[in-house]
Write a structure and sequence with these properties.
By secondary structure, the chain is α+β, with helices and mostly antiparallel strands. The chain has helices at about 10-20, 40-45, 60-65, 70-115, 125-145, 145-155, 510; strands spanning about 165-170, 180-185, 190-195, 200-205, 210-215, 220-225, 230-235, 240-245, 260-265, 290, 295, 305-310, 315-320, 325-330, 335-340, 345-350, 355-360, 365-375, 375-380, 390-395, 400-405, 410-415, 420-425, 435, 440-445, 450-455, 460-465, 475-480, 490-495, 500-505. Mean pLDDT is about 80; it is low at about 1-45, about 50, about 115-130, about 145-160 and about 270-280. InterPro entries: WD40/YVTN_repeat-like_dom_sf, WD40_PAC1, WD40_repeat_CS, WD40_repeat_dom_sf, WD40_rpt.
């Protein structure tokens, strides 16, 4: 057994045991800022500190030389120990440098205090200056994190200032999931739903009764949009077409609204149900319509969405064939084919007052198409998401709001779309979003059956309640606001085969926050 040079007898064994215990740790002395004497250089300061590792004649630590491990393993361990020692050495050097900077700053602070007081620096002067600096820092933190603290404060508000969400009515009758929901812009105000059961339905908002069922498509009906001035609907389908059809409905007498209300954010666990209550064969005595006024063709894939351009004389469609088409409504002729996306399109939307179109795609981008100048059709590509962009919609105030499978929603300014002005981060993929014109609220439908409400600054305001009596039981696909119906101003639809009408009351105080 090798022993330390110069040692003999029992004393050598004791010293060797102590040496083994000592080799387990690296002894690095902390530097006190009050020390008056320091080494000339940082490297000298490090070299002056003991490492706690003693080496034998073979350049191996004594404990390593005593080990029965193979030489290759011991070499690797020695290399690792050397790396650890170098890391501690670097940290120690940084520690010395930081303490020198702290002393320099303290010297400057002391000098400033003497200048202000015009004499000797007193404890009271330092306390006053420190208090002033702390006040400035506190104010800066409040300004910087105002939006973040608003989110926290809003969740602790009293019940009187919380958003109240009342489930007004359920619209049951489809035999498969509902992809899209919309509300007419002119009287009579009715609700429209587009379903995977190959049909679109018009509903009385007040009674929940089906007024008309369109069955002209040969595939899933993926979206429904209403003409801005006439009683016409535009539906997109998996049969690679979009249909324009006219409707005439008569509203029934209004039924009393059930008193079922709850503060938003309420959630109660319940057992999943495969079916919703109601007639599985659809609503009784619902008139049907089979023939379309016009059929828009030319796509080579599923038409996932369609919308009217401002004025209603043209319509745009988005398809899985990676193109969006612009049609003349009167002649059903193709006017422009908007190409450029690398993958399937997921959504399209038109500006309410300008000839602008925004298309979303699975290629993680959305594109802004400008038709305001008939001779120039410009396009801008925006890459703000990391996964499929499920929808992008315009607002009345020249903003674009985009939602994505990357679990974020971003608010953009049309005048400067280099970066979003607000980002909302959620815990689930976001489907087809909608923005309220009057209150400027964003309704987010999620894959996890939740619906959340945010303002345009990205501050969360509410979450629609879910319990064993109300709420969606499957993925929520779409939301739509109704500005002309105060008793039922938000509609949601999902793959549980039902649409739900809600009355959302957001106190002004909560919106200001």
């Amino acid at each position: 057994m090798p022993v330390e040079g110069g040692s003999a007898g029992g004393g050598g064994g004791v010293r060797r045991a102590k040496q083994k215990r000592k080799s387990h740790s690296l002894s690095i002395r902390r530097t006190n800022s009050t020390e008056q004497e320091r080494p000339g250089t940082l490297r000298d300061a490090v070299d002056a500190q003991p490492t706690g590792i003693q080496y034998s004649g073979n350049n191996l630590p004594l404990r390593m030389e005593d080990s029965k491990l193979p030489m290759s393993v011991r070499s690797n361990l020695l290399d690792l120990f050397g790396q650890i020692e170098r890391e501690f050495e670097n940290l120690y050097i940084e520690n010395i440098e930081l303490r020198r900077e702290i002393d320099t700053l303290n010297d400057r602070l002391s000098a400033d205090g003497q200048t202000v007081d015009g004499g000797d620096l007193t404890k009271g002067a330092l306390k006053t200056k420190a208090s002033h600096s702390t006040s400035q820092l506190s104010q800066k933190l409040k300004t910087t994190y105002k939006a973040s603290t608003s989110k926290i404060v809003s969740s602790f508000k009293a019940t009187t200032s919380r958003a109240v969400c009342q489930l007004v009515r359920e619209y049951v009758g489809h035999r498969d999931g509902i992809w899209d929901v919309g509300v007419t812009r002119t009287a009579p105000v009715v609700l429209g739903t587009a379903s995977a059961d190959h049909s679109a339905m018009l509903w009385s908002i007040e009674t929940g009764k089906c007024l008309l069922k369109y069955i002209g498509h040969a595939g899933s009906v993926n979206s429904i949009k209403f003409h801005p001035t006439e009683q016409m609907a535009l539906t997109a389908s998996g049969d690679q077409t979009a249909h324009i059809w006219r409707y005439m409905v008569q509203l029934p007498m209004a039924a009393p609204v059930p008193e079922v209300s709850a503060p938003c954010d309420e959630e109660v666990d319940f057992s999943d149900k495969d079916e919703v209550e109601g007639d599985p064969d659809g609503p009784s005595e619902c008139p049907t319509l089979r023939l379309a006024s016009a059929t828009l063709r030319s796509h080579q894939g599923v038409v996932i969405c369609a919308d009217w351009l401002v004025g209603g004389k043209q319509a745009v469609t988005a398809s899985w064939d990676r193109a969006a088409n612009l049609y003349d409504v009167e002649t059903s002729e193709l006017v422009h084919s908007l190409t450029g996306h690398d993958q399937e399109l997921t959504h399209c939307c038109t500006h309410p007052t300008q000839r602008l179109v925004v298309t979303s795609s699975r290629d993680t981008t959305f594109r802004l198409w400008d038709f305001r100048d008939p001779s120039i059709h410009s396009v801008n590509v925006f890459q703000g998401h990391t996964d499929t962009v499920t929808s992008a919609v315009f607002t009345m105030s020249d903003n674009v709001v985009s939602g994505s499978d990357d679990r974020t929603v971003k608010v953009w300014d049309l005048k400067n779309m280099r970066s979003p002005i607000a980002t909302i981060r959620t815990d689930s993929a976001v489907n087809r979003i909608s923005v309220s014109v009057g209150q400027r609220l964003i309704a987010l439908p999620h894959d996890n059956r939740q619906v959340r409400l945010f303002d345009m600054a990205g501050v969360r305001l509410a979450r629609l309640p879910r319990s064993n009596r109300q709420g969606h039981r499957r993925m929520v696909c779409c939301t739509a606001w109704s500005e002309d119906n105060p008793s039922c101003n938000l509609f949601t639809c999902g793959f549980d085969r039902q649409a739900i009408g809600w009355n959302i009351n957001i106190p002004a105080l909560l919106q200001e926050k």
